[in-house]
Every structure is written in structure tokens, then in C-alpha cells.
Amino acid sequence: MPYVIHCLDRPDAGDLRKRTRAEHLEYMIAHGDAVVFGGPLQSDDGARVIGSLMVLSHESREAVERFLDAEPYAAAGLFAQVSVSRLRQMVPENPPGLLVAELERERAAI
């Protein structure tokens, strides 16, 4: 089951992200089988990093929480805000034909 993790950095984090980046990258590589995609969130002008976005594939929210407890940025206190939401992936279609089936179900309900 995919989970979206949206993290915003603390405004006073200073160079904490830079100091923990190598450890964060090692952690993400080690858990690559559970990482659907992710990356740094940027300011509108792209000049600075303001947070992180991760989509993880885990069986439960508890598994996601365990992942985050050990994730180096989170463990270092980089984030001011972290939200976790379960995601029902529809695009790209998984499985193929999902959107057509959803559309047919919606039209049948009208």
C-alpha cells in the first residue's frame, strides 16, 4: 500500500540537512525496495530545499512510522511538520484499465 510522506523543514534547521544528507541517502538506498519515489521539496524559485516528499510502499501505517523513526532527517529533528497519508494509486494506472473502470462506475451511479 502506498503512503505519501510530506515533510517541511524547520525554519531554524540551518545546515542540519547538509550535515545529515549522506546518512539520509544511505538509508534511502538501503530501503530502496520500499521507496516508490521521492525527493527534496524546493522553494518556488528552486534556490533552496524546504522539505522532503516520499512515497513508500508498506503494508501498514505502523511500518511507515517505524521507517520514519529511523530515517536520518527525521531522527535528527530536521522536520517541523510531517504528514502521512495512505494513497490509492490511480495514475499511472495500476492495474491497467483502472481509470476506465472508475469512469464506468461513476457513470453507472448517475
What's the arrangement of secondary structure elements?
Blueprint lengths: L1 E8 L6 H15 L4 E8 L6 E9 L3 H10 L1 H4 L3 E8 L11 H12 L1
Antiparallel strand pairs: 1-3, 1-4, 2-3
Main traits of this protein?
110 residues; alpha+beta; 4-stranded antiparallel beta sheet; 4 strands; elongated
By DSSP (H or I, 4+ residues per run), the number of helices equals 4
Estimated radius of gyration: 17 Å
Number of strands: 4
Weakly predicted, low-confidence segments: none
Structural class: alpha+beta
Helical content stands at 25-40%
Q: Please report the distance between the alpha carbons of the first and last residues.
A: 30 Å
Q: Give a short account of the largest sheet.
A: 4 strands, antiparallel
Average pLDDT for all residues: 94
Shape: elongated
Strand order of the largest sheet: 2-3-1-4
> Which sequence of SSEs, written as H and E, runs from N to C?
EHEEHHEH
Strand content is: 25-35%
Task: Write a structural description.
- With 110 residues, the protein is α+β, with helices and mostly antiparallel strands.
- 37% of the residues lie in helices and 30% in strands.
- It contains 4 helices and 4 strands, in the order E-H-E-E-H-H-E-H.
- Strands 2-3-1-4 form a 4-stranded antiparallel beta sheet, with no helix packed on it.
- The model has no long low-confidence stretch (mean pLDDT 94).
Brief digest:
This protein has 110 residues and is α+β, with helices and mostly antiparallel strands. The protein contains four helices and four strands; from the N terminus they run E-H-E-E-H-H-E-H.
